[in-house]
Amino acid sequence: MRSHHFLPHIADVRLKAEGDSLEELFTAALEGMNNLIKTSSCPAEKAEKELLKEKIEISSIDATSLLIDFLSEVLTYSQVNKAIYCKVKFEKLTNNFLSATIFGKKVDAFDEDIKAVTYHEAEIKKDKKGIFSTIIIFDI
Amino acid sequence: MISKEILKKISPVLWEIPKNYRPDMKVPARFFASEQMLEDVFKDRSIEQLVNVTTLQGIVGPAYAMPDMHEGYGFPIGGVAATKFPDGIISPGGIGYDINCGVRLLKSKLTFNDIKDKLESLAREIYHCIPSGVGRGGKLKLSPEELNQLLKNGAHWMLQNGYAEPADIEHIESNGALPNADPDAVSGHAKKRGHDQVGTLGAGNHFAEVDIVEEIFDEKAAQAFGLHKNQITVLIHTGSRGLGHQVATDYIKMMMQVMPKYDIQLPDRELACVPFNSPEGTNYFNAMAAAANFAWCNRQMITQQVRQAWRKELGEAGGDLSLLYDVAHNIAKIETHEIEDKKEKVIIHRKGATRAFPPNHPEIPKEFQTVGQPVLIPGSMGTASYVLTGTQESMQASLGSTCHGAGRRMSRRAAKKAIHGKTLKAELEQKGICIRAGSIPGLAEEAPLAYKDIDDVVQVVHEAKIAKKVALLRPCAVIKG
After folding, report:
1. Is B410 in Cβ contact with A10 (below 8 Å)?
2. Looking at the annotation, which residues of B are catalytic?
């Protein structure tokens, strides 16, 4: 289970992401960011071999930083390759390290120019029901 | 929770939060605002962020916020702070993700009457000549080696390669190039993000604008600046694009990882910092300088594109567009300031704040020595912008700094709900402002109602004497992504 929705922010974009596991949370956050970059851009399931692929490995000081660093890395690939990376397959995901493959497709244009994924207000919390959540602020 | 009750009133436009407000404060916090602005000041976390800045290792003198302040990442936007050279910290959050976002003003020899019948076509041609909008690349395609040279040499590279006039260079802050720039300190990711973006506006609140000088407040300064009433000028606002954003992202991540070895603990991750003279601090400063050089090249390339559009639409009769000045409002510099009666070499962080050097300062062009450095303050789209001068008072009162713009007061979503882009366009056109925008929703996000009143912001800095009003500019054409 995972979800995301946007919340008000005075200058930039505030996203809340939730998931019933760390992996689901990270995926929800990715979906939220993609929705911001290009609304409704992610296709229904497509064969992995048809999509652009990038391998990512990141070490960070904690799970929250890892999430922000993950989104930053995907954002960079998005901007450099002019693509949206809708799908992620995690090979390993701990509180301090992830390795994953992201799958995407080229796009003609973006709806939003994200300057950066910030650490501001980001803090992964787990509630009594075991749901992970965090706020993420995108500098646009 | 900070409230008005703890404030100490230094003057009608300057307030202080004393050092004893919080045990981790090393210095007081000061901010510029009128009494009427105080309500707004406490609506977001900018004051709390300013107090956080006062906890930074090596900070000297108060931390400051300008009257256009609002909540940012780490420092508030409008934040200024100095740390002791060489071992005080340097913090990317004190510069911002858009390194060397800044403004330049071009002067023409024309008045509004000279262009009013060609305004539409001129706006269309400028829009055509400057790539704008999300993800748009520019016309200048750089090889990796060329990019490295550009990062190293800044505006000088533009001159050497035919994209600048000699007179442009001395009219750019720091002559358009920070000498410590090191392309090797800029990551491959950053170079890939920025390699095709020289000469692009981007989106959001970045723009090019054709303005009329509507009012002159200081005849002597206006004359020194070459400004007169009804003169047509062009204002350009943009920064270091994806390259600068990536530099900031890279180094914030890196600094968070190494801070423990310097025994640095912070109230806010986004204040991530290291000692300036550490290897990481040196690398960041040198990468920041390279990104700053990139931004100056970006604004220079856009200038050439505007000149091209000018020539095409107006021909010989259009005359030249000369550069008055180019200022950075997200940058760190090494400067000498008098702090508590002592001359100190410091690392100045300006985030959403503009340098405002006084008359006779050696770093400003000769022709401005008698009046002070030009300060350019863009308003929101469709409202006034201002030209001011730096003052001696700013050196004492605000580390040689002043505001940078209007500051947002409404979210983008709320702005889009409050007014439709098409309605806004029609309203601005009715006021005689020609609009060329790549995104109608993007236009609504930048509606004047989403911003604080620029007149109020500038009046505060004028009253505080940290910059002096010279001229008011009114837009007649706005070009944005």
Report:
1. yes
2. 404
